[in-house]
Amino acid sequence: MRLSTKHLHFVIPALLCTFAGSYPTVLFADDATPALATTGTAADPAGPFTLAYKFTVGQVHRYSVAIDVIEKMISGPPTTPINIHVDLTTTQTIDSVSATDGAATERYQVTATGATMNGQPIALSSVKSFVPSEMTLVLSPVGKIVASNSAPGKATVPGFVNPNALGLLPLLSTDPVTADEAWTDHVPLPSIGVVMDDHVTLKGVSNNDGTQIAQIESKYTSAQPFNAGTQMGQAKNSGPSISGDYLTKFDINAGAVTSSIGRMTRTETGTANNGGQGAATETIQTEVRTQMTLLKP
Q1: CA 213 to CA 262: how far, in whole Å?
Q2: How is the chain split into domains, by residue range?
C-alpha cells in the first residue's frame, strides 16, 4: 500500500462531483477549525425555524469550488506526501418539481478550470476522467437524494456520489428546529461501499438585512466499515475509518446553500511488500478539504 495517484480513487470521484463552490484559497492551517464569518449580522431569536430547499422550475445556481486532497503516510516507510488541488465551477438547474412531494430534478454541469499536484500543473484531462460533465439528481425538499443518473446509461440510487456526506447538500430537519437543536440521519456512499452517520446541528441563525442565514454544522462518522478484502491488490488489516466536519451557510429565505467549508479524513491501515523483506504494516491518511461559495448572477 504505497502513496500514488491511483490510491486517490477513493476521494477524487467523491469530491469532484460537488455542487457548491468556493474561491481557490488556502482552506485551513494544519490544525485550524473551519469557521464561517458572521460579521455584520444580528442574531435572530432561537426560532423555531423551518429549513427546506426551495425549488422553482428554471432556477439556476452557479458555484465555484476549491478542493485540496492531501495524502500522507502516518506510519511505515517514509514517502513524499501527495497534494492535489482542483478548481471547479458548477451550474445547477431545476428542470422539474413534483407537485406531489416537492422533489426536484436538478441538472448539474461541472467544469474543471485548474489542477495541480504538489504545486505542479497537471492536465485537466486527468481530472475530467473522474468528473461527469453533466449529471442529474432528484432531491427531496430536505436535501435527500431520491435518485440520480451520473452519466448516460449509468443510473444509480442514491447516486454515483452523495453530496449529503460532503457538507455541500446538508440534510435538513423534517421538523422545525431551534438554535443548537440537532438531528441525525444516515448517508450511503455506494461508490466506496460505506454508510455514514450524519449528526447535524443548527448552530444559529443570523439576520442580514432581512435575510435569515442559518449556520449548519454537519459531523460525519463511518457507521458501517468497508467489507474486508483487498484493495489495489494488497491485503487489508482493517477497514478505513472516515470522518467529516463541515459548516454550511444556508439562506432560509431563498432555500439554498450559500457557502460551505470543511474537511473529510480517511485513515487506513494495511500491508505491503517491503522490497522482498516481508510484509510491512502501513497507515495512510487522506484528507480532503473543500470550500464552496455561491456566485452572484
Answers
A1: 18
A2: 5-27+45-294
Contact 202, 237 (CB under 8 A): no
Q: How far apart are CA 201 and CA 119, in angstroms?
A: 36
Q: In terms of pTM, does the model score above 0.70?
A: yes
pLDDT tens-digit readout, 59-118? 999 999 898 989 888 877 777 888 999 998 989 999 999 999 999 999 988 888 999 999
Query: 158 preceded by cis ω (within 30°)?
Result: yes
Match domain 5-27+45-294 to its CATH number in 3.90.226.10, 3.40.50.11220, 3.40.50.2000, 2.30.230.10: 2.30.230.10
**Which residues are within 8 A (CB) of 36 and not within 5 positions of it... i.e. 6 or more apart?**
215, 247, 248, 249, 259, 261
Q: How far apart are CA 297 and CA 289, in angstroms?
A: 26
- Rounded to an integer, what distance in angstroms lies between the CA atom of residue 35 and that of residue 12? 24
96, amino acid identity: S
Pairing between strand 134-139 and 145-151? antiparallel
Rounded to whole angstroms, how far apart are CA atoms 292 and 297? Answer: 16
